[in-house]
């Protein structure tokens, strides 16, 4: 199975070449190829450099290393439209002195935002269905894991129902962090300290 990371899709979407990215970062193109082929991860300092490329100004830093899925594809497409809007928008002043922004990409951007909202709602529906109906899957898990699975889905469902963007982003970033990294002692310790700080350290995976 071929894995594609966000950087590869960004290079294609924004019309860059491997050589251009290498020159922007001051590194050899083979290093960039190694990142794209999964031979090594992109170092944090290089991700910082990538985020400072003007075309990538609207890119969430986690997308550079993240494996591509449908949601990531949509994020990258929207980021590209945001970049085009920022680049191509014009300020128009009418005869009464009123200022208007003429954005040739506004319609496409709004359509993409609505599409992403629809996708999020569909994902929430799937989560609810899984939470309430996936008894066959739960019965195949041992009791401890099955219980944790149900609690995790219930917590996620509750967060999305609150429709709090900051909470949704926080839990998504945390899940991406855990999913994309090995559960090292350092990561485990950091998560425990965070939970302990907020007085919510209990049983389960951190107990």
From TrEMBL:
Single GO MF annotation: DNA binding
Domain of life: Bacteria
Pfam families reported in the protein's UniProt record: HTH_3
HTH cro/C1-type domain boundaries: 7-61
Entry protein name: Helix-turn-helix domain-containing protein
């Amino acid at each position: 199975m071929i894995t594609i990371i966000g950087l590869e899709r960004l290079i294609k979407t924004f019309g860059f070449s491997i050589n251009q990215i290498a020159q922007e970062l001051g590194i050899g193109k083979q290093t960039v190829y190694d990142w794209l082929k999964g031979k090594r991860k992109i170092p944090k300092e290089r991700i910082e450099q990538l985020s400072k490329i003007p075309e990538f100004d609207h890119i969430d830093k986690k997308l550079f290393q993240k494996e591509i899925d449908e949601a990531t594809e949509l994020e990258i497409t929207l980021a590209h439209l945001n970049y085009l809007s920022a680049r191509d928008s014009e300020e128009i002043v009418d005869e009464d002195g009123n200022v208007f922004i003429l954005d040739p990409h506004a319609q496409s951007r709004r359509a993409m935002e609505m599409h992403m909202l629809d996708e999020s709602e569909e994902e929430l529906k799937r989560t609810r269905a899984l939470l309430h109906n996936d008894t066959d899957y739960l019965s195949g898990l041992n009791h401890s894991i099955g219980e944790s699975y149900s609690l995790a889905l219930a917590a996620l469902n509750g967060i999305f129902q609150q429709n709090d963007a900051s909470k949704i982003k926080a839990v998504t970033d945390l899940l991406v962090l855990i999913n994309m990294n090995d559960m090292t002692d350092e990561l485990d310790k950091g998560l425990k300290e965070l939970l302990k700080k907020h007085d919510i350290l209990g049983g389960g995976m951190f107990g």
